[in-house]
Amino acid sequence: MHTLPTTRATQPKKARSGPSAMVWMVALAVMGVVLGAGGGYIWLRLRQSQAAKNASVPPTPGPSAGLGATLNCPPDMVPVSGGSFKKGSSKEDQQSFGSSDESLLASVPVESFCVDTLEFPNKPGRKPRVSVSWLDAKGLCDAAGKRLCTENEWEKACKGPGNARYSSGDTLVASACNTGTAGGTPGTLAASGQFDQCRFNFGPSDMSGNAAEWTSTTFPGSTEDMTIKGGSFDSPSDTSRCAARKRGATTHKDANLGFRCCANPLP
């Protein structure tokens, strides 16, 4: 018997169905778009990062920013930076000391300035010049290329950045400054800078006690009398508070009354 030849082994297999060439082209196009977008995003981020590195950055203020130490003043003067400070005294102080002439505590702006470290003639170890009228004090400051301090300047220099009550600090320290006692026992005029503890914050010495000091400010409510600050060696310590003040005629002289000078910062 003859077996009929089979064609199964010799017949070509049909190709499996798969994506057409058109589908592959679309897929490749989409992948190109995605990769292109991703690459573009990365490139853009790199450009932004580089631009940020190249951008000029403003310098960060150092530790002395905002302090008087950044001002240019003569070597015998203390720099005081401008800004607002708390001028005057609290209601409690005014009630405690009967200080009706003092202004009520309020924020007051002041420009930067320089103030003498010591009372005139601003020489360590020498007694301040006293028994000087306001007119003479103004003339002596002018002759030195300076000027009398305004009341606001004087008080800010006395209080310092912490708005202390006394030039020695917020709390009165016994014998820190050259003042009289509550019982009326007077002291004597001392050489400038002798009371080492009677300076605080900005650093001017003897702003509380020793010699009282003229300012260039007319006393409130007066058209002629000038403002005197700082207390003195023969007055109670409460009168040496930075906010305390009294009045005096421009021709007035006293053995406990002197002055110190202020000036604008140097260029």
Describe the secondary-structure layout.
Blueprint (H helix, E strand, L loop, with lengths): L20 H34 L22 E4 L2 E5 L3 H7 L8 E5 L2 E4 L17 H10 L3 E2 L2 H9 L52 E7 L7 E4 L15 E4 L8 E2 L2 E3 L4
Parallel strand pairs: 6-9
Antiparallel strand pairs: 1-4, 2-3, 4-10, 5-10, 6-7, 7-8
Beta-strand share of residues: 5-15%
The first-level CATH class name: Alpha Beta
Distance between the termini: 129 Å
Assembly state (oligomeric): single chain
Class by SSE composition: alpha+beta
What percent of the residues sit in helical stretches (DSSP H or I)?
10-25%
Radius of gyration (CA) equals: 40 Å
Mean pLDDT: 80
Described by strand count, sense and barrel closure, the largest sheet is:
4 strands, antiparallel
User: Which overall shape is indicated by the principal axes computed on the Cα atoms?
Assistant: globular
GO molecular function, one term: formylglycine-generating oxidase activity
Organism: Corallococcus sicarius
Protein name: Sulfatase-modifying factor enzyme-like domain-containing protein
Keywords: Membrane, Transmembrane, Transmembrane helix
